[in-house]
Amino acid sequence: MRLLAFLLLLALSAPAGAVQPDEVLADPALEARARALSQGLRCLVCRNENIDESNADLARDLRLLVRERLVAGDTDAEVIAYLVDRYGEYVLLEPPATGSNLILWVAGPALLVVALGGAAIYLRRRRSAPEAAAPPLSEAERARLAELLKE
Length: 151
Fold this sequence. Notes:
Elements lengths: L1 H12 L14 H12 L17 H15 L4 H12 L13 H28 L10 H12 L1
Helix pairs in contact: 2-3
């Protein structure tokens, strides 16, 4: 009985998609394609959430648009191209590393390499720099030190 309750709890805790029953296509193959496409598309209202999981009205509109394009006979690539033309590459959760996006893909690792190189140069120069000798004590300082040490 506990196992059944645990399995039921586990099933209920799984993330439920935001796809409404009236959005689901009658053709299971087209519906599977629509779900696969919508998992790779960003909700333009919710940050970093795909339209398949988002409850935003715009995400619903995008899900319906994807399904309309698939029913019209578009291929997956044509649906993606249509959405990118309409909303820009921001609609893709994983934009391609081409064109102006290439700068964004390369900038992070490049800055990390530059920072590590700068740290290595700094540490090498610091290690090879001669130690600065402390100036010798004056007679007054020596007398004061001797007096403090006697106490």
